Amino acid sequence: xxxxxxxxxxxxxxxxxxxxxxxxxxxxxxxxxxxxxxxxxxxxxxxxxxxxxxxxxxxxxxxxxxxxxxxxxxxxxxxxxxxxxxxxxxxxxxxxxxxxxxxxxxxxxxxxxxxxxxxxxxxxxxxxxxxxxxxxxxxxxxxxxxxxxxxxxxxxxxxxxxxxxxxxxxxxxxxxxxxxxxxxxxxxxxxxxxxxxxxxxxxxxxxxxxxxxxxxxxxxxxxxxxxxxxxxxxxxxxxxxxxxxxxxxxxxx
Length: 253
Hints:
This protein is an alpha+beta fold and 253 residues long. The protein contains 4 helices and 15 strands. The protein has a 15-stranded antiparallel β-sheet that branches. The protein is elongated, with a radius of gyration of 24 Å. It starts with a helix and ends in a 6-residue tail after the last strand.
């Protein structure tokens, strides 16, 4: 009986030691052993544990994102899931979300991401004008399988929208609502919030590329906006500008 008692004590001590080791495992130790499993994402200056940690810097496809923080929920592991609260704090990109990873399926909840509007410059492709302000993305529903969106629903707001360069103009707030369609593409609408620029448009993005069509007009004949629109799309007889954008989905720089 004494031998059995001591074996039980040793077993409990081993379990306690294992739990303590895992709980206090440095995040850098774990990430170093993941090798290239993070794919195009690389992190540096890692501190904390695998449960609560921080990467002082991160890069995605060569693009600097900023610092990443995480808090992992251990109980989710019992259901073969990894649940975590994630935060991103960089010069150009900021965000936070709750993420749940199960197999190859990643679900996001209450995701908020913002970026410098200048990061959208390659997609808009208006070389005479530089985009100013910040763009905020709010995702009410997001599900990615193998890195590709299967379900997506949300909105985006270009706050303090403005352009500089060949023309300078304040545009107000411009917004978009979007969601996935039955064929898997992301479709959405574009509109303004009543500022100096009137906007009405729609867009579609799929694996093969993206396209957007919009009509823009200076509200109340705003002279700064009128000048800016002379560099945007094709100017119409009524003073509006028709903008058509076509491109391939490539990583933002």
